[in-house]
Amino acid sequence: MTTYDDRASLTDLTTTAERVRRSIEGVIEGKPEVVRLSLTVLLAEGHLLIEDVPGVGKTMLAKALARSIDCSVRRIQFTPDLLPSDITGVSIFDQQRRDFEFKPGAIFAQIVIGDEINRASPKTQSALLESMEERQVTIDGNTYELPSPFMVVATQNPVEMEGTYPLPEAQRDRFMARVSIGYPSADAELQMLDVHGGISPLDDLQPVAHAHDVVKLIEAVRSVHVAESVRRYAVELVGATRSHPDLRLGASPRATLHLLRAAKASAALSGRDYALPDDVQALAVQVLAHRLLPTAQAQLNRRTSEQVVLEILQRTPVPTTGSTDGGYVQGGPAQPPLYGQQPGARRL
Known about the structure:
The protein is an alpha/beta fold. The chain is about 40% helix and about 15% strand.
């Protein structure tokens, strides 16, 4: 097995990530925190759900991320008549060979863009479950491995309900993070008119990283150190969602794992080989909120999942130091930083 020096890997990571970030920001104006979250999910081996109103650049962000990396890309336009076999593939009988031949579907790519995923039926949506969790596809009793790196970037429109099928909880739980792009500022929108007014910047976008580089960077993220106190803090945050009175469904153990992986990737993007509680805090809303189901009373009171997660962050004590024996020392309430904000340089 080839090994890589940790410091060299982190240096390569920040350098490569900076190139990809600049490439994407040439297409998506004024949204650096959204671009950083996309890179975080990619390096944490997760999948990204982009949920926002029409016309803010959801598909543009997914395409810019895919084109910035020299890897295979497939785009699936989810429609009500889309079949599971269109995604996973199908076995076709070959008359000459007198045997069945497997024809891979659109899921066999390193970056898969699922446009308007909630327009397909739940039967078709479920075709993604195995591939997103186990990175493999099983057809007619045969298992086929998916390429590495593998990431699903899905978009959906939350305001248009006609002809759509809400994502089931099992599907939403497989997305590491959900992000909303939001409307651009006036200056960013004015700059967008200058850049996008003539031709699409996607036409001139060239890859700035290779797939094998991303695989190495993922290995570097895996080596990021997470102290026991930080791990316990993540467990307490997720556990608090399961007993909150405003939630009828809390976050799963998979959410805890995703939160930890995302925190490690965020730390690596900041040039650190260790994760801080700040990394966990800054990602908690994006990683946890889309998995939670508010109670009927909470919905009547217009309480959102995001508000509940922020309340849990305020109430859960933050570890302030780590002892040599791995002990957990509680601190005061959290003040969650904005995602992408550089956390303090305290090591646990």
